[in-house]
TrEMBL record, chains A, B, C, D, E, F:
Residues 4-300 form the Carbohydrate kinase PfkB domain. This is PfkB domain protein. Belongs to the carbohydrate kinase PfkB family. GO terms for molecular function: kinase activity. CDD domains: KdgK. Signal peptide: none annotated. InterPro entries: Carb_kinase_PfkB-like, KDG_KDGal_kin_Halo, PfkB_dom, Ribokinase-like.
Amino acid sequence: MAPMTDLVTFGETMLRLSPPRGERLETTRDLTVQAGGAESNVAVGAARLGADARWLSKLPDSPLGRRIVTELRSHGVRPDVAWADADASRVGTYYLEHGGEPRGTNVIYDRADAAITTVEPDELPTDAVAEAEWFHTTGITPALSETTAETTTALLRTAGEAGTTRSFDLNYRAKLWDPETARAAYEELFEHVDTLFVPRRDAREVLDREGGAVEIAHGLATEFGFDTVVVTRGLEGAVALHDGSVYEQDVYEAETFDAIGTGDAFVAGFVAERLRGGDLPAALRWGSATAALKRTTDGDLAVTTRAEVRDVIEGEGGIDR
Amino acid sequence: MAPMTDLVTFGETMLRLSPPRGERLETTRDLTVQAGGAESNVAVGAARLGADARWLSKLPDSPLGRRIVTELRSHGVRPDVAWADADASRVGTYYLEHGGEPRGTNVIYDRADAAITTVEPDELPTDAVAEAEWFHTTGITPALSETTAETTTALLRTAGEAGTTRSFDLNYRAKLWDPETARAAYEELFEHVDTLFVPRRDAREVLDREGGAVEIAHGLATEFGFDTVVVTRGLEGAVALHDGSVYEQDVYEAETFDAIGTGDAFVAGFVAERLRGGDLPAALRWGSATAALKRTTDGDLAVTTRAEVRDVIEGEGGIDR
Amino acid sequence: MAPMTDLVTFGETMLRLSPPRGERLETTRDLTVQAGGAESNVAVGAARLGADARWLSKLPDSPLGRRIVTELRSHGVRPDVAWADADASRVGTYYLEHGGEPRGTNVIYDRADAAITTVEPDELPTDAVAEAEWFHTTGITPALSETTAETTTALLRTAGEAGTTRSFDLNYRAKLWDPETARAAYEELFEHVDTLFVPRRDAREVLDREGGAVEIAHGLATEFGFDTVVVTRGLEGAVALHDGSVYEQDVYEAETFDAIGTGDAFVAGFVAERLRGGDLPAALRWGSATAALKRTTDGDLAVTTRAEVRDVIEGEGGIDR
Amino acid sequence: MAPMTDLVTFGETMLRLSPPRGERLETTRDLTVQAGGAESNVAVGAARLGADARWLSKLPDSPLGRRIVTELRSHGVRPDVAWADADASRVGTYYLEHGGEPRGTNVIYDRADAAITTVEPDELPTDAVAEAEWFHTTGITPALSETTAETTTALLRTAGEAGTTRSFDLNYRAKLWDPETARAAYEELFEHVDTLFVPRRDAREVLDREGGAVEIAHGLATEFGFDTVVVTRGLEGAVALHDGSVYEQDVYEAETFDAIGTGDAFVAGFVAERLRGGDLPAALRWGSATAALKRTTDGDLAVTTRAEVRDVIEGEGGIDR
Amino acid sequence: MAPMTDLVTFGETMLRLSPPRGERLETTRDLTVQAGGAESNVAVGAARLGADARWLSKLPDSPLGRRIVTELRSHGVRPDVAWADADASRVGTYYLEHGGEPRGTNVIYDRADAAITTVEPDELPTDAVAEAEWFHTTGITPALSETTAETTTALLRTAGEAGTTRSFDLNYRAKLWDPETARAAYEELFEHVDTLFVPRRDAREVLDREGGAVEIAHGLATEFGFDTVVVTRGLEGAVALHDGSVYEQDVYEAETFDAIGTGDAFVAGFVAERLRGGDLPAALRWGSATAALKRTTDGDLAVTTRAEVRDVIEGEGGIDR
Amino acid sequence: MAPMTDLVTFGETMLRLSPPRGERLETTRDLTVQAGGAESNVAVGAARLGADARWLSKLPDSPLGRRIVTELRSHGVRPDVAWADADASRVGTYYLEHGGEPRGTNVIYDRADAAITTVEPDELPTDAVAEAEWFHTTGITPALSETTAETTTALLRTAGEAGTTRSFDLNYRAKLWDPETARAAYEELFEHVDTLFVPRRDAREVLDREGGAVEIAHGLATEFGFDTVVVTRGLEGAVALHDGSVYEQDVYEAETFDAIGTGDAFVAGFVAERLRGGDLPAALRWGSATAALKRTTDGDLAVTTRAEVRDVIEGEGGIDR
């Protein structure tokens, strides 16, 4: 029998290209390259916190495609990649320019027609999904193409049939689709989801929900039958509804070096702790602490350790003498 | 007939050499090179906001002189340079060491005998000044040498005769001359100036003015017949007097990456908006917003866009999803 | 009457992204960004050698599109860009990994669906072409899309009607089309071309020519009525046929830092000298010397000066005491 | 049943710290950090060429220990590390200063008392060795401490009992022991070795062999019963003796960027090809080509691909159009 | 007669290796190398403030040992180093990863068996100690080895006999010894100390003192007969007891770029001012201002000047016009 | 009595600013800063080879002036600097762009009116010259200003009166004066010189000498009474005439990373060996070997060691196992 995997995620990972602090994309000569993608961010974060994590995707069989795999693998994630013809496919790319008040951080996506937009279930090791304890994907994946939407549904269905816990982070991207289209797609997927992560803002603007986080969570859980709904509220922290109980979690204050990937780090910490048997409040703490640590480092990834997360939760830090 | 230019500026541009953050000039091994000079800063800022801008100066015909032209041109400014013999002239240089409380930012000028100190009107396309809508220079230029002082006067006179709006930013530099000498020189030039930009501190310490910004503006306008006086007050914002009316403008809060060039960015935004037909309050908003954006980026230049300035004025920002 | 332009080029310019020497794309964390494209390389090279040069293209109205314009403008080229909607278009990109025997230099194109693929003549200042002395484009442009092929024909036609000299560099790219398709397209364009630049290898493999460079030149000139044919032969130098005379030109030896852009530098030097009234042998010398200088510097562009080219031709160099 | 592994290697991996080219350790301010160690170099090289490779070692459970694992994992190697107490152990380190005639490349080891010096067999997954097709270690490992010498013997014995092919690269290090001590230790291990890699110089100076490479190979094979002996001769290429036949292999010429790790790359290519069923001549070609590619890139590791090695063997290269 | 030295310090200096801001040791590829050690930090700080300072230590006679000397010498310190055999000794090293809330700054020492652990008095120029006005060492040195503890005692004794003022900074390092062992060692040394610097936290946790800073100072002075006791309290400033009088000193606020070395900078400023004849309050001001300036720059060292310290004390700063 | 110094040199040291390899000054954004000056290059080279070396000069009392002192001191040289008013003086600067055939290395001096041009003997510790064994200066110093010419004469006279050996390196700089003026100045100084270093080219073009190196040496020695004449001939090596005997020295082949400072390294090695009692042939070997090592490293300085020079002379090198 194949070994059980803790976590499988599915989605696009891009090359993230960013100029040095204080420089503009329009004039820079230097770009830092890193791998970034919501689902692989979660896989990396969880793997670093002890989960055995795999990540499914499709990439060109080129140095650029392998560049992504190389970085993810370094953090202990096992990539399961459908390799596309290098000459007939491309890697999604995004450019990130760090801002500073009153200039916003600027993200420019160049992801159209990335290799993943053609990924079909039979190119992927769907067994891995069935054998995993947890499957995670986000609302970005179905937005990439009709094919990825169908593959997302197929994988969620596979997971459901196998009893794999399925989580879904709404992650609405206004550059990929409009709220109405997105909402329709989300709602079709919701029946296959056990745990929903949703920013309060997206719940309001995309899912047309009203009221506070608790009210939103109740509404969604009732309507779609989620086992767990986690509503994130930026600096106000998160609220979770699970088995009829409501749990609140504050954010841990952080000196932000790079905010990108904070939400994925939250999911990573949450899922890693659930996989180790932690209860909801513990999972929220792990999510929140992992997110805080993520903010202190460069890049999409939560490059941290169990010990560091534990120190944050227990309120320890500072310089070691 | 030659095409109308929006803006012509005249002055020295130097090579700005700065070590990495946290490093001292005394021990550094790395310097970043950028072009910096009050008048070309204004030309670049205005050009980026849509103005057709030219910049008049004198430089050695060497890689170092061309280094400056190369950078200015990249932002759309048209440099009109009197090229001096490379072996018999030099480029002005300034070293900038970023500070941090309680250590001040340190600027070391090495600009004596720069090529511009010998510039005479007949080396410059004075037609350009006559054909422009707006001519701008600063109180640094006449401080460089007697020759630059005379050329400044000549160009202002040319502008005045042609009906070109003339603005002047006091920009007192204690390392170039003492307050008394400066004051005498300024006052001779004032008769050729329509719009005066003056920091409140300089108004007090160099022009011997007393009272608040409004009082200073009234006094100067009355005495020298300025069309517009803009008094800047650092973090307290600016005050403008125009046609007998007083306008106040707050600063837009900014996370400062590099404060050098803030004042020039203000002038650039102000002039660019005036050139597009904006009224005084609009010009003040554009000046203030451009200045705030400048503070978030490295270097003397306001590397920004009309859309970004508009977003600041309209209070929008943040990460684009 | 609008001022006469020396040179107009038309084509795609990409962002060139390259890791440091000795590093692989597959593992690098740092990329240098530069602008690169055959036709803008020629415009930059010629502008630096004194030509008044414009470059026509289409780019997204985004920091990435402006990044390209910024760099070209810095060298004195005037870009005439049709700006595409930033959200609905992309910039062509290419990744360059420097090799070293026995590992080849690796170029990965990510240029599909770049903004230029939709460029139509009425988006471009065709007047500029008509008013120019010289118009240059390459065999890459018609390979990008049917639309660019048609626009190329239209611009060549406009140039021809206006008496503008038209040059064309074959520049066959195997990743864009196959030899047969390319040949057919080239041959349709040839009737609109005065000066043809063609590598001997492409003449053989794509145009099905046989024999040596001189024989190839004669054959092409006879068949298509070119005024001038320049056949380049790598390290063996170039051969030109003009008015029935044959001219040979050796390469100037160079310590190669970066070979990309050598052919474009050759064209730039050749055209710049022709525009100044130089005869064929002089133009070949300028082309060859500019190409040698290009090889010594990083990037696609021939960042050099008239004085440096002259020194190479006259055999001077070395350290200045 | 556990899945079969292709290759297991065992040995120390250090942090390699090197200043930029042209700078001296004595004055540098910047160091590049990379992972380097003969046995993990082989594992990485082989993994990149398609082998399923594991690497056994011992490291402190600290960011520095994990730094090494992170890099090896990125290339697809599965590290099996005995984690030592972070406060009571250290990572071996080596400083590498690139030379240039007449200044030699300078290597400074700071590896005394590294965590691996205490590694015992029961800390390692010896099953992995037994289940692998091939086990590789080098003459560095037994030189580190008595404990590593004993563990080396134990692992070779385990491999031998399980029928795993055992290879050994002599890799004499004068800074670790003297020739006599080394020779005695080697000779005790030789009975457990199937394939010996030995530089001709070491064969002469350490193993006291005389004559040419073929004679040396025969002598060693006869005396110690090796299945295969590969004698490397620097730029003169390698000679292999196998089943009584002698095979010669030239080096592929290379533009050397970094020579460190060349020998390990040779072993990696050789073993990877043997594991895929290649015969001796093929393995020598793969070894030699992988070594040549290694020389073109920075760092200890042969960051290459099967396609690139194949291109070298088939004599293809150069810029892709 | 040999010339009088102002200050002699004795202790270990390490290579400090730190990744860029926002990067983790576990994944970084770049390290900055700097010299760092409590006693040489004091020597450098004092030398830069005008003292003639020497520093005694032991290092391997290798590029790494010389790397340290090179940097210290650049600041005007005269190193008196006992050179150890390069092949049989090592340089202490420490890795520094800058933190950011909630992630602490991480220091990893790799200093076991550094060359200094074998230093004996007769390897050092003990005359220098006798001829100096002031001798300084810290509680780190005796913790390194029994030999360094004995040498520390010997040097303090030599200083005492010669009438040289002896200062001692407690500098407890939990990674080197436990509080009880440390306390016993400290108390043996205290009889040879005139001026004690002690953080309030160490006084409590290691010396078992109770109460506030003043009470601690009185207790220590009474029990051990110190001439001066300076108790530092982090952001609450310092308290000094001298000749029965108590002096308080606030910290000067600082924008912290790098906090490492702040305490040593305080001692450097204090000692430098005492050596110039300043009284206790002046010395406290100089210590505090030097410490504030240190925080604004990268590295262990207080790279500052007398003029800058004076400006801080006098409350001047900001950008020089 | 003050301690005897081995070597005192006198001359200008500049900030050397150079862009990365392959980049042009005209477009670079990064400059490396290093200290460079013929006489301090000699002092550093000799100090590193064991001489007790001092260097006399004049610099502004600013971070830029101290930048130079900081670097020289790091190599063990004792700078004796006359500090000029920071606001009224400047540091000489030179820009260095590395070339590559056929593009020459480009040096741009910006040294006019550097602080040293006003240096007078009474600002310098002339005692140091009198107490030294050897005094060295070059033909650059008297070319800087009349004052430096007079001071050079005064120092040479002081040295002569004290019996200090005086060496002079012709070092003709065409950018500072013409051959006739230079020749006249040199010839006045020659009576104060014991050892003359002169490139064959300068001997011919500036001193109007004819014939080969030996003939030149004889002629100069006869006419001016030099004790030793060393004529350097680039890659053909050096010839020395001493006490009527002629000595030849080949160059040691070197992989050149940076050729600047090669001649100064030669002088440094020569003088260092003479100071240790070596005979002429030994001094020539040391000079030549030091020069070869210099070529392998970045910057003006010969950052090497006695052991490395010895290895070159003895023909040893390569990677240390």
